[in-house]
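Deliverable D4.2, example record:
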Amino acid sequence: EQEEYLHQAIKRLSEREQQILQLYYKEELQLKEIAYIYDISVPRVSQIHGKTLLKLREYIQEAMQEEDL
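Output generated by the structure prediction step:
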């Protein structure tokens, strides 16, 4: 059930956010490698990653609350 919430939450992210998560967690690239791919700074990649994780938590909490109603 939690996995389904996660899949649905990921679908709500922008394509860029999804790709960064893919590169970081599935491809296991370092932030500096992702920064090189996107031609942005490492702190910017870190910022996007952090904000994306917050969005995921928010989306999952929303889905869980809606199911409780």
